[in-house]
Amino acid sequence: MRPISYSRASAVIDAVATVAADPTSDFLAGGTTEVDLLRQNVLLPRRLVDINDLPLTQIEERPDGGLYIGALARMSDVAEAAAVRERFPMVAQALVMGASPQLRHMASMGGNMMQRVRCGYFRDGMSPCNKRDPGSGCGALDGFNRGHAVLGVSDHCIATHPSDVAVPLMALDARVHTEGPHGRRVYPIDDFFLLPGETPHMEHPLEHGELVVGIEVPGLPAARSSTYLKVRDRESYEFALTSVAAAVTLADGIIGDVRLALGGVATKPWRARRAEELLRGAPARRETFQRAAREELASSRTTLLNAFKVELAQRTMVRVLETLTTGTESPS
Ligand SMILES: Cc1cc2nc3c(=O)[nH]c(=O)nc-3n(C[C@H](O)[C@H](O)[C@H](O)COP(=O)(O)OP(=O)(O)OC[C@H]3O[C@@H](n4cnc5c(N)ncnc54)[C@H](O)[C@@H]3O)c2cc1C
Predict the structure, then answer these.
(1) What's the pLDDT tens digit per position in 38-56?
(2) Interval 5-9 mean pLDDT
(3) 173 to each of 101, 108, 271, how far by Cα in Å?
(4) Which residue is closest in CA terms to ligand 1's atom 13?
(5) Alpha-carbon span 260 to 267, nearest angstrom
(6) What is the distance in A from the centroid of ligand 1 to the CA of 110?
(7) What distance in angstroms lies between residue 34's CA and the mean position of ligand 1's atoms?
(8) Of 13, 33, 50, which marks where a domain is finished?
(9) Which ligand 1 atom sits closest to the C-alpha of 72?
(10) Considering only CA atoms, which of 274, 172, 275, 277 is closest in space to residue 221?
(11) Is it the case that residue 330 has pLDDT exceeding 90?
(12) Which of 50, 67, 83 is the endpoint of a domain?
């Protein structure tokens, strides 16, 4: 048994100060990831600072049509909020397709953004893993890696980023607000998630003790016609093999604004910028979608077991784009 001290913070400033002062401490929100990893001896904090009393549960509408979502808003509350369902359907859909109803009632938005990877070599607490134990190697590279990433990988880590809701948030250029030992910061979401490179143990640019306080989602007309498609081994309670969040505007068959991001295939929620570039201003037809999808996945690095994800991700992209632009799904 390892003793762990527990306290509840009632002000953001106290939570930040307590965790910042002790390198062996962690924040505790819904606990749906943190407690699992404690039990498995993957995380070994000596102090937990419970943040559930902090006033960070708001889901506020902004004058530009955007939203500000507090870090302690529960996944289920965000998924059910009318403003989210109407203005950002892909965000609501991604939330509902994640985890299970019980987990979504507990799990917070901040915790979702900070959740750790589902790689079995990270989570067994024993295998070589450069994330858990820097420099120890990566068991997944030559191991069972069917679910692992094909984009953004390095020689040191190929773990897939697990979050669903981070995928539409990436497509929408959301911004993550934090409060830390050195004050308030705002991160463009693309900078909030780090690629593994040579330092896979660093998943975010945050300092120890820096608390996510909210997520700002800018108003975007295209987001009203958006959708999230998640492909997985079973229809519920399962992480994505591939997923696509897309928002598109169309005029006379020509694509105007387009936002695309991929989940389940990359080491961070993956903004499909190359595909967006090819789609913007192009006719909305299958050949265009296929080319954009092909080029986005062109830099994939696969293993024997996960190579199928390249084709699957392309098909998922094409299907989502066809659904959004014609209202009908392709047979592929
Ligand atoms: C069986 C199972 C299935 C799941 N399936 C899915 C799925 O399909 N899709 C999906 O997206 N997710 C899935 N999840 C993950 C789930 O969404 C996360 O566990 C949850 O969102 C984490 O939120 P939490 O509030 O419980 O965080 P906690 O477990 O309390 O914390 C998670 C981590 O974030 C840190 N943290 C928490 N809040 C903050 C904050 N405000 N600022 C800084 N650090 C913070 C904690 O210290 C900890 O390291 C699944 C989880 C389980 C257990």
Answers:
(1) 999 999 999 999 999 999 9
(2) 98
(3) 27, 20, 9
(4) 99
(5) 16
(6) 8
(7) 7
(8) 50
(9) 41
(10) 172
(11) no
(12) 50
